[in-house]
Amino acid sequence: MSSNQIINFASALSNAQKSFKNSFFWPRTKVILEILRILRKEGFVSHFKSCRFRGKESFEIFLKHSDDSETSNSFKLVSKPSLEKYFSKNDVWKFSTNVGIFILSTPFGILSDREAKQLCTGGKVLLYVS
Questions:
Q1: What predicted TM-score, i.e. pTM, was given to this entire model?
Q2: What structural domains and CATH numbers belong to the chain?
Q3: pLDDT (0 to 100) of residue 68
């Protein structure tokens, strides 16, 4: 899994929300599929679908905008190529918040902090979304 891929995706998602786009396209990968599954489940994106865009397999990602405020979701990369952060199963309980979610790469796949709590596992922290 490439950290650059996740950095670029988080940046594109944040920029699309700030510019109030309804949707945008992103190349299809397994990692992005799992991250999108979590973001949809937690309510950060409306939905997504697989399609062909400019001859490549892609996702069309439909964003969720709140009408009552101009604030957009914040996507922060936690683990960087130069410094990777890991949460033990105890850290997942300690740092979990009601405001946002952590997305972790675990032995069970890519999970949200809530799913990691249920499975009593830790892992590499990829993103924090609030």
A1: 0.89
A2: 3-63 (3.30.1370.30), 75-129 (3.30.1490.10)
A3: 52
